[in-house]
What we know:
alpha/beta, 6 helices, 22% strand, hydrolase, RNA-binding, cytoplasm, Pept_tRNA_hydro_CS
Amino acid sequence: xxxxxxxxxxxxxxxxxxxxxxxxxxxxxAEKWGAPLTNSKFNGMYATVHRxxxxxLLVKPxxxxxxxxxxxxxxxxxxxxxxEDLIVIYDDLDLETGKLRLRQKGSAGGxxxxxxxxxxxxxxxxxxxxxxxxxxxxxMKVADYVLSKFSKEDQAVVGEAIxxxxxxxxxxxxxxxxxxxxxxxx
Length: 186
């Protein structure tokens, strides 16, 4: 079984903000696969999807970003999912808006959701898809920036990025993640 986790914050005020790009990708996958996230466990919403490649769990932690590991760790234990079958999708300030960067391991890079996952999983070695949201303009606080919505100009680019993420996740179901990285990075 694979587990695809999109990071974000629950609630209407956070919908479609930069910090919630992970949730947006999970929503796009759920819609494409006809699998609404109607189940809940360990403070997260999820759907179990039966794909030709095997079972896939789509997950949105409802713990708020900084505590994402409190949902993902117990879910992975409950469903007996290995860390190599995890893909985490989240926002990245160090990438240009809409750019994707796939990695198999790495530090949290200042991202509190990833810090929480590393803490609860006991490893930095898990697959991830980072989606660029760019840096805030001069004088704007990072927290205010990531909790704001994308500009009209950025929305088309973000829509394309979400579509690319969906394609990368689908490719990862039947290909080694390294091959998917080579295909979708750059």
